[in-house]
Amino acid sequence: MHAFYAMANKRKIINDPVFGFLTIPNELVYDVLQHPYVQRLNRIKQLGLSYMVYPGAVHSRFGHSIGAMHLMQEAIGSLRQKGVEITDEEATSAMIAILLHDIGHGPFSHVLEHTIVDGVTHEDISLLMMERINVDLGERDEYKKTGDKGPLGMAISIFRNEYPKHFLHQLISSQLDVDRMDYLCRDSFFTGVQEGRVASERLLKMLDVHQDRLVVQVKGIYSVEKFLVARRLMYWQVYLHKTSVAAEQQLIKILSRAKVLARSGKELFCSPSLRYFLYNPISLSDFGICSEALDQYALLDDNDVISAIKAWISSEDKVLGLLSKSFVNRSLFRGELLEAPLSEEQKQTLNKEYAGLLGLTEEEAAYCWSEHVSTSNTYSEKADTIDILYSDGKVRDIAEASEILDLEALTRKPIKRYLFKYRI
After folding, report:
1. Which strands form 369-375's sheet, in the order they lie side by side?
2. Helix-, strand-, coil-residue percentages of the chain, each rounded to 5
């Protein structure tokens, strides 16, 4: 009786503002959701600093992860209706894999990858965290009989594209995966940018498998076209919005300055987990499934960074104080488009200008500006293509099948080069 109630209590329903009621299908998925590494995603914003442009963009990576898990559940149901063989274990593993696909993200998305952690990507951390959760759950009595690979073994295999059924990995990572379907729907909803809305339900209904590859039935070609256009618009209107990028560049400069001060022995206010990375030269070799580096990383979230920056406003270091104060008060770097990369002479002129205006050394003045390139392509011919399945069994790449999307426009990577400068 006790075991029955324990299992029943784990079959939860979550009310999601984007997709409505989502179901936690079984106890393993529930236990993964309850792991501290996953719950940490509640404290990390999905869109980083985009809330400084779109005030509603304060949704979390946890919301995105459970939304993507729901779409995976729907995708599997749609494929099963078409006769695609997917076992219950494979379905659960695919849902867990997409649930954990973003688990390695640090505070404010990719900022930490460019500042206080050297040569470590969120993909590296995601895989390590998945392995750690597998170890933690594998030690529980109810999961000890799952074999040498542990309860998440198949999920990790699918995530790494090592599982025989390649189409399951494509549902997690491809140019038409449930990750992208969710974040376009979710980010459009919370930012209010209607151009990002996609017909995710119809796309899922049109999915099929042909020769172990994910395809879209020809009836869904217009939904795919809309999906690609929406992705293009969302990147330039939201993800690469000039002000959002300016805020991120300023945050990178703040953390870079803090790291330099910390490594020189200056005492800075920060949480224990942020202190660990500011004061120690941590690289990929320091990370392991049960390492201190991974434990400390798992304690980092947006709150650590924001609370530190608020305290750094009163820092004795003039650069850190100025940048922190302007960041907190949203007096962000001003951006201007560049036609060509800055020359060394132009960089030296900028340093001298800020040094004179703010009473800094030229080395310190280099923290007051940033040169940055934003780029994104809508579609890549080199990645897993989006394939359209015709009624006669033939398959064509969407870039060839579409009558309204131009191949050159789809695959071209527009480049915008910016100079971001401290406001005086």
Report:
1. 334-338, 415-421, 369-375
2. 55, 10, 35
The predicted-structure confidence for 201-258, as pLDDT tens digits, reads as follows 999 999 999 999 999 999 999 999 999 999 999 999 999 999 999 999 999 999 999 9
Instruction: Look at the pTM and tell me if it is higher than 0.85.
Output: yes
Q: Report all structural domains of the chain as residue ranges with CATH numbers, in order of start.
A: 10-239 (1.10.3210.10)
* 104 touches 126 (CB < 8 A): yes
DSSP state of 332: P
Residue 222: count other Cβ atoms within 10 Å of its Cβ: 15
Residue whose tokens read 């999920």: 155
CA atoms within a 13 Å half-sphere pointing along the CA-CB vector of 378: 22
Distance CA 178, CA 204 (A): 9
- Nearest Cα neighbor of 368 from 224, 288, 231, 249 is 249
Q: What is the pLDDT of residues 384-393, one digit of tens each?
A: 899 999 999 9
Contact 419, 340 (CB under 8 A): no
Please, what is the angle between helix 318-328 and helix 242-263, to 10°?
Answer: 150
Nearest Cα neighbor of 372 from 347, 343, 337, 346 is 337
Residues 6+ positions from 328 with CB-CB distance below 8 Å: 309, 310, 313
Rg (CA), the chain: 23
Are 75 and 204 within 8 A, CB to CB? yes
Whole-angstrom distance, CA of residue 369 vs CA of residue 195:
32
- For residue 36, give both structure tokens: 């501290």
Q: Check pLDDT > 70 for residue 3.
A: no
Question: Which of 42-56, 110-124, 339-353, 408-422 has the least mean pLDDT?
Answer: 110-124
Q: Are 254 and 323 in contact (CB under 8 A)?
A: yes
- Consecutive H or E run containing 370: strand 369-375
